[in-house]
């Protein structure tokens, strides 16, 4: 019996693209879904497909038609994201998808501090109610996000207090996702995907100092300060709340969980934050002296 075709949404992005390449290396047949299929890599066994908003049920169904397995990367944050996810899930199932691997978030719960984490929890519940085999991958904050959140002034700002976060690298997330997509024995599981340790943002700043050769510091904002400092971007209220509460979730300890999922499913240790910086110097290029 032929192996099921695997559809990968967001295949032009950081996680989806990594998953697509790993699946190709494993010899899988894939449908790579992106709004810009011309930007997708030319991979063995892959078909590039023009994607659409998750609000477009017919478009989603057409994009994943012929696939038996779906890697569902969450939609961009919006006030209606759960409904968008439900529409995409229903459309995929109607098109014949029989397994779904969903990229969720660590600590997802109906009342978790991180407001976007609540969206992930409701999506997980919707998936469970469909009866279709699924796996939820609850990844922690991306290790790549820590230097990205640090300003060119060398200050990492946020109301995270002295809480800890088990930051995980995009490569490790993709490795776990690939393992799960290729092995249905994980169906029905909710897996925490984390780095090997939980660090404070002050420790992250100290590590960035070592790598950049310039002082990088952490400023523990108050919640009020955090909302004020982010108001200048003119983003919708729900988006600003998501930014701020992502730090508050660190402060409460909700993102300090350290799981063994990466080594257990991939056979290699999870990358630490220094490991990530060592392998990805471009991630902190904006912090280098003279940048």
UniProtKB/TrEMBL annotation:
Taxonomy, superkingdom: Bacteria
Pfam families attached to this UniProt entry: NAD_binding_10
Residues of the NAD(P)-binding domain: 10-184
Coiled coil (residue ranges): none
Annotated PANTHER family: NMRA-LIKE DOMAIN-CONTAINING PROTEIN, QUINONE OXIDOREDUCTASE 2
Protein name as annotated: Uncharacterized protein YbjT (DUF2867 family)
Species, as recorded: Actinokineospora auranticolor
């Amino acid at each position: 019996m032929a192996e099921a075709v695997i559809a990968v949404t967001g295949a032009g992005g950081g996680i989806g693209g990594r998953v697509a390449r790993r699946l190709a290396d494993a010899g899988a047949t894939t449908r790579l879904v992106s709004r810009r299929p011309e930007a997708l890599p030319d991979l063995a066994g892959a078909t590039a497909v023009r994607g659409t908003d998750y609000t477009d049920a017919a478009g989603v169904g057409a994009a994943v038609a012929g696939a038996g397995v779906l890697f569902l990367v969450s939609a961009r944050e919006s006030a209606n994201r759960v409904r968008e996810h439900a529409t995409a899930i229903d459309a995929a199932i109607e098109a014949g998808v029989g397994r779904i691997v969903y990229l969720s978030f660590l600590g997802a719960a109906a009342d978790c501090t991180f407001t976007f984490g609540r969206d992930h929890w409701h999506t997980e519940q919707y998936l469970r109610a469909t009866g279709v085999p699924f796996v939820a991958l609850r990844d922690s904050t991306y290790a790549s996000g820590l230097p990205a959140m640090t300003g060119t002034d060398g200050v990492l700002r946020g109301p995270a207090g002295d809480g800890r976060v088990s930051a995980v690298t995009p490569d490790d997330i993709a490795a776990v996702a690939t393992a799960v997509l290729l092995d249905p024995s994980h169906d029905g599981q909710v897996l925490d995907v984390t780095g090997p340790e939980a660090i404070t943002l002050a420790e992250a700043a100290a590590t960035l100092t070592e790598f950049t050769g310039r002082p990088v510091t952490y400023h523990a904002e108050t919640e009020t300060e955090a909302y004020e400092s982010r108001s200048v971007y003119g983003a919708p209220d729900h988006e600003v709340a998501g930014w701020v509460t992502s730090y508050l979730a660190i402060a409460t300890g909700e993102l300090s969980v350290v799981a063994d999922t990466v080594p257990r499913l991939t056979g290699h240790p999870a990358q630490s934050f220094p490991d990530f910086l060592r392998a990805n110097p471009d991630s902190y290029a904006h912090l280098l002296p003279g940048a």
